[in-house]
Give the backbone structure.
Amino acid sequence: MFSLSRRQCPPSCPALATRRWARMHERGRVDTHFRRRLLFDHRSTSIQDVWNCPRDRGIARRFTRGGQDLGRSWGGSYTMSLDQHYTPDFGRWLMPLPDTLAERILAETRTMPIARGALIYDVGDAPDGIYRIISGVISAHSRDAAPLIGHLLGPGAWFGEGAALTRLPRVMSASALIETRLGFLPIDTIEDIGNEFPEFWRGLASLAATNTALAVQVARDLMITRPEDRVIAVLRRLAESLGRSAAIPLSQEQLADMCVLSRGAVSRILSRLEGAGKVRRGYREIWWLEE
């Protein structure tokens, strides 16, 4: 691990943003909007980024004791876990909402661990609420004998809002591709919040529009006729969803199914892309390296 000095950190560097946030908190200048922006934008920031800067170790010690998180919380709902990578507590759809409403949503959200491979909901299930990914990866897939993955969702993503809005049965299945931790907002709580804050429904509609646009992008990627371009489009979309530095936890066979190609064709394409420095392959993992 290397040390980041103040001069080495560009303005958008997560470590610099974290230090700025910590100093602003010390001076009582942290506003809700900045907290939201930090939590949403800087997915890969960890306490190590702060600790590696010698002049900022004093600040880091304020938030940790013996390497353990103190669970510091601001405003009741804004909890920063500094002993691990940050996971964004907010989605874009929450950004325009009033502070009291955003705090209420997070305060009412329950946290639950999900085992690898566990089904969260299935096609045809009655709506039970909406979900937020705190850590891990969720696959949206069909309900076939051999489920076909349509897309992967990573930390910070919210999903399941369509059925919550319409009260109609689920049209997609969702499963945990790896060990995952979710936030869950029950359907009855959604109704209560909507009755108290009418603008909540506009926020949910915004989330639904965002996820609908994502579904359109999935369909558009599959319309690409040249196989290599199709694989590139799918990998790029998955990297955007999970984070550029995160591994895409798919086998080559699963990626082939997503691209509607044979496993052999995908293997040859990945070999060419790896030779060009665009991807790196591991055991049931793929990294997209191109910016």
Remarks:
- Confidence is low (pLDDT under 50) at residues 1-89.
